[in-house]
Amino acid sequence: MKLFEFKENEVLTPELLIHDLDKLQKIIDSPEFSTFGLPESRGAVSYKKGVEHVTELDLENQFIAFQLSNKADGPAILESSEVTSSIKGTADEPDVLMNLEMQSFHIANNIDIDKNSRATMRINIGKDKDSTDRYFDTAFWSIAAGLDLYNKAKEKPAEPKDLKTDFKQAFGNRPIEIPGGLANLNFEVVKHREPKWWQRIFKFLQSDSGQTLTSTLGFPAITNNAINMIDELLNRLDKSEPEILFKSRPLRLALSKKAKLDYTGGSQRIKIGSLSPGFCVLAKGKDFNTFINSNAFYYPTYGKLVPSNVSNADLVTGNYDDPFKDVTYSIFRVGMKQSKLDPNFNFS
Questions:
Q1: At residue 124, what are phi and psi to the nearest 5 degrees?
Q2: Closest to 80 (Cα-Cα) out of 190, 188, 185
Q3: Which one of 192, 248, 332, 342 is at 20 to 30 Å from 213 when CA atoms are compared?
């Protein structure tokens, strides 16, 4: 079973949604069609017997990048197509430098966590194939992270704020480079037991005060073939009782106003997603209304989202009904600046 498989060309676009639905309908109409119990959820539905395996694309179970609003009024969380990046981008500086910091990772209460529970995270981000950049080949900044979901020092599941890491350090303090400002982002997380080789790859630091619960490896500016080699290694987790927490097709995101304009041509009918410097939330599409209805605020001290109607006293005593208790989500802090990447140099 392939737990990790990055296909940069299969980004979430309206064209692919239509293609998947057409493909699914042809199989349903075929004489060989046979189902083995349609699940109540509209998630992955398998169709067998003489036809290829098809997984129904379902936005509600795909991970989505939401922008946390920087205003106290209005929607707390913005779907990416509602975002306009504060990075302008110009003809002289069309590229974007980016840093990512995972502030917290919240595991839903209905997911079983014991002392042997671990998770592996994969993030790939680089220039989208439809970027207007003509100078750089497509390369990705790839992250593989190990998460220890159980805090042995406290003898309980890890708190969201314990699962954090600055990916810039994994890249040797180099920023992520996005030529042209149009990015392709892929994010996957798999929960599993710990195989012996996993601990040798991800180094968890021990100290008197406890244990570092996140270990990160960074691979700057690598090709798709190199990503496939990393994924082949991590796919060995298939014998470790894996449970997919996040898995989705890559997202195409405009990181600057110029990248958005270059892609859409100024058409108001094209709703491409964007990200802006600040905080973003990675969660499943079906949880979007939960964020909106609760008018959530993010508390970095505790690494969690909290409804606006919860007082500080109720927050610290846990005396409130948490609408996010069964929601798995991650909070990222995003830094960006426009730049000009120069591929030309000489030896004189």
A1: -125, 130
A2: 185
A3: 248
